[in-house]
Request: fold
Amino acid sequence: MHFSGAGRRARVAWCLYDWANSSFPAVILTFVFAAYFVRGVAVTPVQGTGLWAAAITASALAIAVASPVLGAIADCSGARKPWLGAFTILCIGATASLWWVRPGPDWILLALVLVGVANFAFELAIVFYNAMLPEICPEDRLGRLSGWGWGLGYGGGLVCLLIVLLGFVQAEALPFGLDRTAWEHVRIAAPIAAAWTAVFALPLFLMVPDKTGPGPGAIAAVRLGLVQLAGTFRALRGRPGIFRFLVARMIYTDGLNTLFAFAGIYARVTWGMEVEEVILFGIVLNLTAGLGAAGFAWVDDWIGARRTILLALAGLTLLGGLILVVQAKLWFWILGAAIGIFLGPAQAASRSLMARMAPPDMRAEMFGLFAFSGKATAFVGPFLFAWATTAFDSQRAGMATVLAFFVVGFVILWPLKEPGTSNRSGR
Reply:
């Protein structure tokens, strides 16, 4: 089903939500606040790395439990926007509140709780956002719209990082009377990221049509949603293609999530980068990732989402192996920028493949399982990273564990027959 009102403006507004919410992973999870927490809040970088991993793991487990249930409820109640709006507001509020996390170990607990809540809300909002994709776009252009949205998202992260870097972190004269000794020039990144999401998410709620109709009451929707979810898990036995894809995505997304969660920390500790340089690295990575996501959008519709994902995983594995053995910082920058090209396609093509495979009446529910597959074992990646880093006293060893997730995901995804090919058994 495609809404008659879902024209070009609606699709642009839908993509703009990617631009809006990208400030959270770029500024908070990966490059700015994570680096500040490790060096400015935690007692030691090793402690900070472990605590950060624990917070991300805890929120990932909560996401894994909640996402398929909420997706099933949304399919029963119909409308996506109320759920999307509620979780977006929660993410904005928790992100803005990170401003109150001051330097020193007394603020560790507040930081971890707020990051966990914000990450939980961020991921659950995406369940309902993704479910809108096949309802506003023809199937033959799903890859392009998904890729353009993801590319725009990396662009949003890049611009927000630039604002933080040039306007505050590197500014000689700090605006608003900020105190550099209290790290306020870095902490201000949190309310900036929150405001960025609030402003640019608004067009989606104004311009993108939503399912309408009375639907059941809240209690009835919860009951029907849980019943439907149980049926969906049973139905997966008759949809081996979807099951295989979800398992493969569960594994390679563990690698991606671990990479995103610790890239800034890795650059800060292993390569000794200051916060300014970490942000610059994040800007370069967001630029190449955005170009990769947008460029591969046509490739997705041309050769299929499955092949696009496989190409991305192969590129990530090869370049990831090289970046772990280089000793010169210049090569770290070059290879890191090249890795960015394949980050976007791995994510955008996964979204378009799920959109193609999901039955029309179960889209939010299937994207709930999609989110579940991205978080069900999300504790494994951070755990292995922390274990290898501690066991070998090397973050390079920790990052090496990420490559295994890409390889295993590649192997599992390889036999999948994508809908639209000569063999439609995956549907």
Observations:
- Residues 45-77 form the longest helix (33 residues).
- The CA atoms of residues 208 and 264 lie 34 Å apart.
- The two ends are 17 Å apart (CA to CA).
- The chain has one domain: 8-413.
